[in-house]
Amino acid sequence: MMHSPLNRREHAALLAACVCLTAGCSLKTYAINTVGNALASGNSVYETDDDLTLVGDALPFGLKLTESLLAQSPHHRGLLLTAVRGFALYSYGYVDWAASSAADEDLDRARELRQRARRLYLRAFGYGIRGLERSHPGLGTGLLRDPRAAVRAIGTKAGDVPFMYWSAASLGLAISASPGDAELLARLPEVEALLDRAMEIDEAWDEGALHEFKLVLAGAAPGVPDVPRIRKHYERAVELSRGRSASVHLAYAEAVSVPLQNAAEFRSLVQRALDVDPEETPERRLVNLLAHRRARWLAARADQLIFTDESPASERTAR
């Protein structure tokens, strides 16, 4: 039996439906990519907020939203950058911090939190490498084999530097959160190679963030600190940040003042960190508030970090 031909109205409705169905995927992809671009452009509402607790409660939702969007658009560089940056920041500012805070009272709880922080750092690192592999396929495998040779393949494209920084930071912090893990410690050359190559491309990136992370790495290294080299990075980071970074002073204090047991310098640097006003630089508000929280924590633990004649005699004997 033959069907009657469609009338003009029915034909128009069918055509419109087909257009809508066909456009659905492209509109969905467009929307996801637009959100991804917005998330990756500049500082997010999280990084400018002044309520650490609110940000800590909200970040997991934002991170899972980012991962949901990545499931639909797995190669979007903006979403990948948001993921590596977000997971690293959340782990450092909340999970790793909670582990440090719990260490004095509940070692089991601290160990559990540190393991979670490690997993989150490595998840961040995975997203960072995925972002770099969009331009440099096979980079992750190359880093495992020969880090210095692998990073030489990364050209001078400025858009790669944020991925290099956050990948290096994520892996470096994962190593720091995993004391005694020889397998992970063996990956430190990957961190150094990524960081050094990023500095070759743009050493002034993000107002001295690369130089500041050099201080963090120096603080985690065993042995006597190389003070002239560390001070050079410290002074350059302060210069590039125009004195607006509180964390750089703490990084130097932990890299130099604590190992050399310089109590006066330690106290001075902690105070310099606290003197940075988060309200003067809204785009750095969250990281400066996190630094203030750490500065107060370090100040409270000064007698446990630096064993000087200023400590009570009973504590010196106990030590």
Kindly summarize this structure in a few lines:
The chain is mainly α and 319 residues long. It is 74% helix and 0% strand.
- Basic shape: globular
Q: Fraction of residues in helices?
A: over 70%
Largest sheet at a glance? none
Output the structural class.
mainly alpha
Task: Output the CATH class name of the largest domain.
Answer: Mainly Alpha
How many domains, as an integer?
Answer: 2
Rg for CA atoms? 24 Å
| Elements, N to C (H/E) | HHHHHHHHHHHHHHHH
Poorly predicted sequence stretches spanning 5 or more consecutive residues: 1-7, 9-23, 311-319
What percentage of amino acids are in beta strands? under 5%
Q: List how many beta strands DSSP finds.
A: 0
CATH architecture of the largest domain: Alpha Horseshoe
CATH topology of the largest domain: Serine Threonine Protein Phosphatase 5, Tetratricopeptide repeat
Report how far apart the termini are: 98 Å
